[in-house]
Amino acid sequence: MRTLANIGLGYNNIASFKEAAPYFLNALLLNPEAHHIWDYVRRSFFNMNRFDLVEKINLRDPNAFRDEFQLIDLNNLPKQSLDRLYENEIWNSSA
To answer: What residue ranges define each of the domains in the chain, with the CATH number in brackets?
Structure first.
């Protein structure tokens, strides 16, 4: 989540607000309680002059923006597993 928000901040810093918004929204999909990220996305929408989107922020639901931005599908994320780590040759070498 932090990485996504930081990429969004980077885009905001170069005034690429439309590019920043999906990063913030995807971060919010992972943690909708991150109030500071809601503030970031609000600022992006204000700077885009998209006051219609600013109003939707009160819903506190990142999914409400799927019609405007490409967002990740949480159901299709790979499950966390250490299997691939332990299958790595570094762990299995006989040195």
So the answer is: 2-74 (1.25.40.10)
Q: How many other β-carbons are positioned within 10 Å of the β-carbon of residue 5?
A: 22
pLDDT digits (tens, 9 = 90+) for 8-45: 999 999 999 999 999 999 999 999 999 999 999 999 99
Distance between CA 45 and CA 52 in Å, rounded?
9
Helices (H), the chain: 2-13, 17-30, 35-47, 51-56, 83-87, 89-92
State the helix-helix crossing angle for 17-30 and 35-47, rounded to 10 degrees.
160
Whole-angstrom distance, CA of residue 43 vs CA of residue 53? 11
